[in-house]
Structure formats: structure tokens, C-alpha cells
């Protein structure tokens, strides 16, 4: 369990850090410069002792210590300069994770009808915040300690190459011992995250249903369920803490043991002429002040943070993938499904309340794959109700509705089977690209521009500043028609093979409406248009008249001949726009 978790956590980490490459390079560059003051530390101490204080030249010793102080000051200036690029890495990283978690939660809600519940909130807030805080702490710690460790090893190799072979195996052994505990740590951390999510889910169910719980006197059962969740979460937390305690022992092996060894051997090293007193002191400085903080950071703080970060990112990667959901290869619209019809309504009855008169009463229709159907009828006849039944917004009281072979409200991927454009076009704050590509995140710029051109959006794009132009919240500054065109182009790009336009062109002039319907007709797939103009109906393969709870369908000529209601409607419609 732990290996895939860490691998998927690492994938999310890489994917989310990739856009911040430049800031990361700045962090790495400044960190490399920070190695210099540490590399100088042991050497200056050795020279201060051997060439200064121990040689009876305190002035020289003080001068070397002044060099040490200057190196420390330079390190402080470099550390300060690091904070700007660090922020440029961490904040966009958090924003990206929040966007992934919210997008995935909404995607599940739209596609599978999974309600947006406590787990999504925990993912988008608690888990993302843990990831942000951990990454920030890691980067802050890593830049100083990695450079200090590199500086210490380089300095030690220059000052006392003989000491390197004696001293370095200890920190390496400590790292290996620590590594042995990581696998268990990852598994335990994942169990803790799942327990927290279960608890949040349980709490949102219990709090959401508290009135029902009170009215059924089900409080003891609800309390038992909550207690079980809390106990599971506490047990998982305890298991993580135990693992941490074990790991906390490893740094001593890496640093304290070799420092003691070095001092124990110092008389022999000095007497045999292998190391001077100053070099022993310098080597101890490298160990304690250079390698020591790095190892403590790695094994006590940073290593645990890596485990936490990979664990939490692994979990986020499971529920909120960074990669765009549908690839371009999945997008093409099927041109048929083994001869099965695209939409089937069988004896559908629907009313808005138990005592309300049915809006639809015994409707049976079949729409083939690739069909283009216009739904017409007098105001209040039930056209939008029919569209809502097709989309699974309402369920029939009796009878069945099947869309793309499945019940509209159920099943995974319903958003990939059918897309609805309602009369009120939804346009959100973001770029034009984000608005267009919302249902087809994998679409490239050329595809987006092509779709925009098909809907006559070139002028709008030019005005807003192209695909990167900003769309204000609610589409402020765009006309109702322009908002509809954006929503239509977005749906045009969607993978769904069945599209329902519910008066989605009502704010367009007849020419723009015609262009939009032609674009959808050429796109392929099944098109159901709730029409408000005769021209829309005339361009469809089939017209479906909703009237008095029933439907009649046929061609324009069929309906003119058979239906007085249709003749009446056709008489009131605007004439066709001039060609
Ligand atoms: N949420 C609702 N609750 C109760 N009744 C509703 C609801 N929505 C629609 N109705 C009623 O159901 C009937 C059908 O409404 P619907 O909106 O489907 O008609 P329509 O043919 O789309 O009308 P229009 O062309 O005016 O948009 C109407 O009598 C309407 O008042």
C-alpha cells in the first residue's frame, strides 16, 4: 500500500511543482551559495587555533574568527533572499492542489451524482493545507541543511581527508536505519488520513440528518457511529506517533557517536601527527554545526515531513488527479451504438408534487444516435421538464428514461454521456481558456480557437484579450448572447455524445442561432433542441411537439397536417431569417 502511495504522492508533487521551475531554480542557486559559509567554518576554526591561539598569536586567531563571523553574516543575507522564491513555489502549489480537489469533488458530483460531502471539504482544506505547510517547512529546512551538509563534507575533505572515512559511515548508517521505518510510516499515515476522511463523512451525515435522528430517537446509534469513527481516528494517530518515536532515535547514531569517537581518538591522532588539535576541533565543527543540523532535520523533521507530504499527496492524487480527466482520444462522439437508440422514453409520467396534475403523462419516444430533434410546444407545456428528465435532474413518477443506455441520474460518467446547456448560460470568473476548456481540459489552444470561431466568438476573444483574457465573475461586461455563445462553445468541446440545448440560444439573433446549431449538427452525436423559433424546428430531422402532457413527433409537414396545435404554434412563430 505504501509504495504506490509514495509513488503517486511523488507524481503529484512533481506535476504540481513543474510550473514553478524557475522559482525552484532560484531556491537551488541560493542554497548552493549557502554552502560556502559552512565550508569555511571548520577551516577558519582550525586556522584560528593552529596558526593563532595555540601558536601564541591571538591577533591572527581573532582575524580568523572575524572571517568566520563575516561568512555567517553572508549566510544570513543569502537566507533572507531565499524567502521570495520560496513563496513563489509554495503558494501556487497550494492553489493548484485546492483547484484539483474541488474540481474532482465537483466532477464526482456532476458525473456520478455523488453529493459534495465532508470528505471533499477535508481534502480541499485540511489535506491541502497540510501539504502546503509541510512543503514550505521542507523547503525552508532543506535549503539550509543540504547546503550546510554539502559545505561540511567539502570542508572536512579539504581540512582532514583522513577523518572522512572514519566519520561519514555513521550518518550514512543512520539514514539507512531511518529508511527502514519509512514504509511502515507511509502505510500508517495513509490509514490515518482515511480514518479522518471517514470521520468527516460520518460527521456530515450525522449533523445533516440531526432532525431525522432526533425524530426517530436514533441518538444512541448516531453517537455509537461517531464514537467508532473518533476511536478509529485516534488509534490511527497513535500508530503514526509510535512510528515517529522510533525514528527519533536515529540522528544520535549519525552525529553524537562520531563526535565522541573523534574526541576519544584526538590524543592519539594528535600524537601520531595525523591531525592537529585545530583540525580535530575543525572536524568537530563540521560534524556538529554542518552535518548535525542536516541529519537532525532529515531524520527528525524533514524526513517525517517527506513521509507526511508524500502520504497526503498520494491520497489527494487518488481522489483528485492532477492530470486532465478525459484525453483527446476519448472525445470523439460515437456515431452509433450497435443500432441502439440514443434516448428512450417509455410511458413516462411526471408531476411536480404528489397532488399536482402531471406535466407529462404517458410519454414514449425514441431518438436515434446522431438524431437532431427539436422539441416545441406552448409555454408551460413541459419542454424544460422533459429536458430535466433527460438530464436526470428529475426522475419520472413511473415509466423509464434511458440516455445512452443508462438511467440519466445514475451511474458513473453521466457527464460524459450527456451535456445540458440551460437558458441561463453559466460563465465563471477565470480566463476565456478556462471557461471554454472546462469540460475538455485536454483540449489544446488550436481546438479552443477553432470552437470559438465556429460560434462567432472571434470578436469577443479579441475584446477580452484572447484565450488568456479575463472573464469577470458572472460574465459581467458580456451580453446575454455572448455568455450563451461561450457556454455553447464549451459544451461543443465536451466529450458528451448527447447534447440538450434548453432554449440555450434564446438571446442570439437568428443568424448566430443558426451558426450555433449548425456547429452542433456538424459535431455529430445526438442533439435535442428546445426550440423557440420556427427556424430551429425546421432544421431538425424530427420535431417533437409537447402538449397536454403527451408528445407527438414527425416532420414539419407531418405535424402541420396532423396537429392543430402545431399549426397554431407555427402561425405565431417568427418567419425564417433571410438566407
Ligand atoms: N419546479 C417546479 N415546481 C412546480 N411546478 C413546476 C416547476 N417547474 C415547472 N413547473 C410547472 O410545470 C409545467 C411545465 O413547465 P416547463 O418549464 O417544463 O414548461 P416549458 O414548456 O418549458 O415552458 P416555457 O416554454 O415557458 O419555458 C408548468 O405548468 C410549470 O408551471
Structure overview:
GO terms for molecular function: ATP binding. Pfam families: ABC_tran. It is found in: Cell membrane. α19 links the parallel β8 and β9. Mean pLDDT is 83; it is low at 323-339. The chain contains 22 helices and 11 strands. The strands form 3 sheets. Strands 5-8-9-3-10-11 form a 6-stranded mixed beta sheet, sandwiched between helices. A 3-stranded antiparallel beta sheet has the order 2-1-4, with helices on one face. The longest helix has 43 residues, at 277-319. The chain is α/β, with parallel strands linked by helices and 579 residues long. 64% of the residues lie in helices and 10% in strands. α5 runs antiparallel to α7 and α11 (256-271) packs antiparallel against α12. It folds into 2 domains: 2-181 and 250-323, ABC transporter transmembrane region fold (Up-down Bundle); 343-572, Rossmann fold, CATH 3.40.50. The protein has helices at 2-17, 21-52, 58-81, 83-112, 118-159, 161-167, 169-208, 210-215, 219-247, 250-254, 256-271, 277-319, 383-390, 414-417, 432-436, 445-454, 458-464, 480-493, 510-523, 534-538, 556-562, 564-572, and strands spanning 343-350, 360-367, 372-376, 398-403, 418-421, 430-431, 470-471, 498-502, 526-530, 542-547, 550-554. The chain is elongated, with a radius of gyration of 34 Å. It binds adenosine-5'-triphosphate (ATP).
